[in-house]
Hints:
The chain is an alpha+beta fold. The protein contains 14 helices and 9 strands.
Amino acid sequence: MSSPRRSSTIRVSDRLTPLHRMAALHGTGDDDPGDGSERRRSTWSRFWRISDPVLRDAGIKGERSIAKYRLIAVALLCLIPIRAVIVSPGLRESWIGLGITVIGVIAGTFFLWLTHRDVVRSWIGFAASLLDVTTVSAGLALFVALDMPHIAVNSRVVFQVYFICLAVTCLRYDRRICLVTGITAMVQYSLIVWWASITVGTSPTWTDGSYGTFDVQDQIARVLLLLIATIVSLTIVLRVQQLRVLSVRDRLTGLMVRGYFDEQLSEAFGAARRTGEPLAVAMIDLDHFKSFNDRFGHAVGDMVLSSVSGAITRLVRAEDVVGRYGGEELIVLLPGLTRAGASERMERIRQAISEVQVEVDGPSMSVNGDDGPESLRAPNQVDHSRSVLTASIGVASWPEDRAGTMEALVYRADARLLSAKATGRNRVVSQAGSTDEFAIISS
């Protein structure tokens, strides 16, 4: 369900909106328009909500990399307990270490299988991180259960794996996973320390000096180190999230840049060919936009383009990808939609674009006919709010258009965009039958 329609009127005064705030015209980002108290109340909810598809996509790709390297790392860690078992087969701790790493290999194989499926669920990152930390904690708790609490609290190998688990969360681009993993590690290790502490004076193994004795200050320091590691990893994730969004979003419109869009289209096209699901692409071009810029200036044109982008993003689904393909030309990726379904959605977008209105210091402007914008008129001659833009749209889909590559699919959408402009503009065009026949969805 699309969000309620917002006002599409842009009021331009002598003090034009700063360019760095253009994308905010259509609500890009998490900024709260309310008062300060409302912003403070919503800070925590924004922290837990990852709504940006850029970050979701980065998290999925990061999870796939993590799954592969986790399996390799755990397999290498197996060499340590294997050697210990060979050298000292009578030591229980050697067998415990081997059992922990074997469980890690099995879990790593399972998550590698999960992340290489076409659909990667968002819960996988949480589950994998919590399992990593819990596996380490289970190993330390097992030492306590087997009457070796001195090894649990003074381990020189197993405890350090906590920091590897926290470092791995930085690759997931998800601040929530980072925070939850760190808190879980601290809570679980604190419980292990408490359990080991109640055995002081009752367990004869505390007299074994090979792993040291129980020292409260040392254990507090270990928990604080986990806290510091959590804060550092969380800071890294927050900064990487900002850089990731800046690198793939157009600063003016908030839409995806062409390079990132092409990556998404390539992945979606490959997935569609494997699963047989339909995939549609739509090219959108704003009619007479160059003439509009020439008459009223690029600053006003930028504001209109930003507002048009917002009108589009409010009418697409969460799984759709909208990109700026160049100048005033936009492109939309619509996975799972046939040509008819995509054309229907594009018709709603065409209508929304035609409702974008502009007021410039009292007089208003409008676009009529094929010769570009009309002259500014006095306030007493026309309304202060008039439609200023129309759009021509071309739609193509797979497998209906039999495009063998994503480039061919985009080319056919672009060809239908040209047909829309040649047959009168302000319409959506899709192929109906032969390669020379076009159906005008709307005019």
